[in-house]
């Protein structure tokens, strides 16, 4: 999902996500539910962030790594009163469930893939809290905080995220009530936005997706989200030795960065970024940004050329490395 060139400029969906309240149907994203008394201590051992002492109503962002420290998955973990929910990109449920299940021995944990049972809706933009309140929902204001509301007999989970700008919510509920609930949000002041609109705002916000900007070839520190995704004090977990060794070395050889181009045409994934004729980076996803009136990209850039302000060349014009999120 890389979005078209600059056909999105100024459209209503993008404007809603950035200036009011945009609604995007993200049904199909992975939602794994873990239940059982050992769920937190078990999951704590298989991701890069701390889960064991995560308070109810709180969440965290983490990588799931293999024994060599390579990334198997990336997403959010939300701790509810009766279960933990792993939320990530689509088509990851079976893979992550099988990965975790192979390590279950005596722990009292059940893993259920709810991806086909639960719908998921993104509501994002500065007026999103107003829309939720008008629709009768409780609003969690802390980042990755979450709550549940009973709306006319339908239980809706509300999860505060920043995957499409600083104010956003992932709303999860039974699929057979999704259309009714979307209509309720629209009546409360939301406006429809498309997946392409979401992708533009997501890239402007610097939020990477597994399978696009993150793959099984990556190590966690290469994604440059250490403060959000990695606890260096939580103790042992699968892949921890590699992550700790990289931390001790102080750097990785490449980093996920933002790149702003001098032209309007987004380069395709795989396009090279050059310095004095030598490839020093690779575009992973790119869009035209109405906010910046230019093409922007998330790219993997070699250390030594990754600092903000570094000037690079490409077949799509000159480019400048910037910090994420784009500003």
Attribute tags:
disordered N terminus, about 325 residues, 6-stranded antiparallel β-sheet, 6-stranded mixed β-sheet, 17 strands, Elongation Factor Tu (Ef-tu), domain 3, about 20% helix, Gyrase A, domain 2, alpha+beta
Question: What does this protein look like?
Answer:
The protein contains eight helices and 17 strands. The chain has two domains: 12-204, Probable tRNA modification gtpase trme, domain 1 (Gyrase A, domain 2, 2-Layer Sandwich); 253-327, Elongation Factor Tu (Ef-tu), domain 3 (Beta Barrel), CATH 2.40.30. Helix 1 crosses helix 6. The strands form three sheets. The protein has a six-stranded mixed sheet. Residues 1-9 have low confidence and may be disordered. It has 327 residues and is of the alpha+beta class. 20% of the residues lie in helices and 33% in strands. It has helices spanning 12-19, 39-44, 93-101, 128-134, 178-187, 195-204, 226-229, 240-249; strands at 22-25, 29-35, 59-65, 71-79, 84-90, 110-113, 118-124, 146-151, 154-161, 168-174, 191-192, 254-261, 272-275, 278-289, 294-302, 311-312, 319-322.
């Amino acid at each position: 999902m890389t979005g078209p060139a600059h056909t999105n400029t100024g459209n209503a969906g993008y404007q809603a996500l950035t200036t009011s309240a945009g609604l995007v149907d993200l049904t199909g994203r992975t939602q794994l539910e873990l239940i059982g008394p050992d769920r937190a201590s078990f999951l704590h051992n298989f991701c890069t962030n701390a889960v064991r002492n995560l308070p109810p109503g709180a969440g965290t962002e983490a990588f799931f790594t293999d024994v060599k420290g390579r990334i198997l998955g990336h997403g959010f973990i939300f701790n509810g009163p009766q279960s933990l929910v792993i939320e990530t990109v689509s088509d990851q449920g079976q893979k992550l469930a099988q990965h975790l299940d192979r390590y279950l021995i005596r722990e009292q944990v059940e893993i259920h893939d709810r991806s086909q049972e639960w719908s998921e809706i993104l509501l994002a933009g500065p007026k999103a809290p107003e829309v939720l309140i008008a629709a009768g929902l409780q609003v969690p204001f802390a980042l990755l905080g979450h709550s549940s509301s009973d709306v006319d007999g339908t239980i809706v989970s509300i999860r505060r995220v920043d995957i499409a700008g600083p104010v956003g919510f992932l709303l999860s509920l039974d699929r057979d009530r999704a259309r009714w609930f979307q209509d309720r949000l629209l009546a409360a002041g939301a406006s429809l936005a498309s997946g392409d609109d979401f992708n533009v705002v997501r890239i402007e916000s610097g939020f990477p997706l597994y399978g696009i900007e993150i793959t099984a070839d990556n190590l966690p520190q290469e994604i440059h989200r250490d403060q959000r995704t990695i606890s260096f004090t939580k103790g042992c977990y699968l892949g921890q030795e590699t992550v700790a060794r990289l931390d001790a070395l102080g750097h990785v050889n490449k980093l996920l960065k933002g790149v702003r181009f001098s032209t309007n045409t987004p380069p395709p994934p795989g396009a090279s970024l050059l310095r004095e004729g030598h490839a020093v980076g690779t575009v992973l996803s790119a869009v035209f940004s109405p906010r910046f009136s230019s093409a922007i990209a998330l790219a993997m850039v070699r250390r030594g050329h990754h600092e903000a302000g570094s000037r690079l060349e490409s077949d799509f014009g000159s480019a400048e490395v910037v910090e994420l999120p784009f500003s």
